[in-house]
Amino acid sequence: QEEDEDRKGNKVVSPNIERMAHPLAERLDILMTILFSYIRDVCHVDGKLDISNTKDLYRDLVSVFDKLILPTHASCHVQYFMFYICSFKLGLAEAFLDHLWKKLQDPNNPSVIRQTAGSYIGSFLARAKFIPIVTVKACLDLLVNWLHKYIDNQDKGANAYCDVALHGPFYSTCQAVFYTLIFRHKQLLDGNLRKGLSYLQSLNFERIVMCQLNPLKICIPSVVNLFAAITRKYQLVFCYTIIERNNRQFIPVVRSGTGGDLVQTCTNPLDSFFPFDPYILKRSKKTIDPMYQFWEELSAEDLENLKKPIKKGTSEDEDDDFLKGETPQNDGVVEIAPNSYESNTRSPVSSIGSPADCYVPYPL
Questions:
Q1: Residue 301 binned pLDDT confidence (cut-offs 50, 70, 90)
Q2: Cα–Cα–Cα angle for 41, 44, 46, rounded to 5 degrees
Q3: pLDDT tens sequence across 259-287
Q4: pTM score of the predicted model
Q5: Given phi > 0 = left and psi -120 to 50 = alpha, else beta, which region is 50?
Q6: Are residues 84 and 39 in contact, defined by beta-carbon separation less than 8 angstroms?
């Protein structure tokens, strides 16, 4: 009988594969599992989504999100309760995006809250499989139009220069747009290359990248490098001259320590993060994984394709006539040593579970 009780006791304790090594992570994993179960049970009655219950719980969770989660820098995992409830119905995901959008564009909000709202928008659009491409396009339109208006207002002003303290929400929005494009560009171009390219060209990335505020200098390098490779392939904008110039102009950051002040080069001056980076809690991740867009590591073929822009007269798609003579060829325009374009296009995420670094040298 004692042996039987021991066996039962062993069953109660989760197998090692289900346990997080760190005690606090283990506790958080259990709590998130309970929270997800609660959300599911409240929103579903007899196996069907109860709209009234779901809306009521959504409002409560948004209130908690605004008070506790949004102001917390680099919140880890807890924010996924919003990701989960939004997966139940597209209207909820759109409501959440609209809520974040209002936070981002409201000048009465503190800059840090607006920047964080931008991070949430970009991360949500990139990672949530349940958000259709039509919604992604609608959000990109809003964000990009706001960026262009912001540039309009700054172009002739005294503050039209690269400064995180002055233009934090602008840079956060740029990064959200770049990050979304990295994850969603294949879907945006899928089916009809001509229509997809026409849409991406209408966003006028060139004006954003070339403006005096210089967002490529402020955004995280891995995001910038992947954005540059993708936009170069489709000849939307040529970022490498700006990246090269920015690389020669380090952004010094003074950090005080016991040994005196230390000047470092800052690769994340926005102090930004992606709130929906890969979910790593072992038990509760089973709830999130089916609706989550993981970063697909670039294959050797993908790397080769990124090196080569679409050329005139290629037959990559039925709609390639759109490219013939209508998009500028950037090859050979800039006279800088070839090595100056060699940059690491790392995964745009930095947490555990991210893909290995990938190396995309600039093609001559």
A1: low
A2: 105
A3: 555 555 577 888 889 999 999 999 999 99
A4: 0.79
A5: beta
A6: yes
**CA–CA separation, 267 and 271 (whole Å):** 9
Residues 155 and 79: their CA atoms lie apart, in Å, by: 37
For 1-45, the pLDDT digits (tens) are: 544 444 444 444 445 567 888 899 999 999 999 999 999 999 999
Of 250, 246, 277, nearest in space to 263 by CA: 250
Quick check: 274 and 179 in contact, CB under 8 A?
A: yes
Alpha-carbon distance of 68 to 361, in angstroms, equals 43
Calculate the CA 256 to chain-centre distance. 31
Separation of alpha carbons 359 and 303, rounded Å:
8
Structure-token pair, residue 297: 């590591």
Per cent of the chain over pLDDT 70 is 72
User: Does residue 71 contact residue 105 with C-beta atoms inside 8 Å?
Assistant: no
134, 184 Cβ separation under 8 angstroms = no
Query: In a 10 Å sphere around its CB, with 0-12 CB exposed, 13-18 middle and 19+ buried, how is residue 323 labelled?
Result: buried
Pairing of strands 359-360, 343-344: antiparallel
Average pLDDT over residues 219-235: 94
Strands 44-45 and 48-49 come out as antiparallel
Q: Is the dihedral of CA 310, 314, 315, 319 positive or negative?
A: positive
Map tokens 């540039």 to a residue: 151
Q: Give the model confidence (pLDDT) of 63-87 as tens digits.
A: 999 999 999 988 989 999 999 999 9
Given a contact cutoff of 8 angstroms between Cβ atoms, the answer to whether 218 and 270 are in contact is: yes
CB count within 10 Å of CB 188 equals 19
Return the domain boundaries, the chain.
23-252+269-306
Distance of alpha carbon 119 from alpha carbon 274, whole angstroms: 6
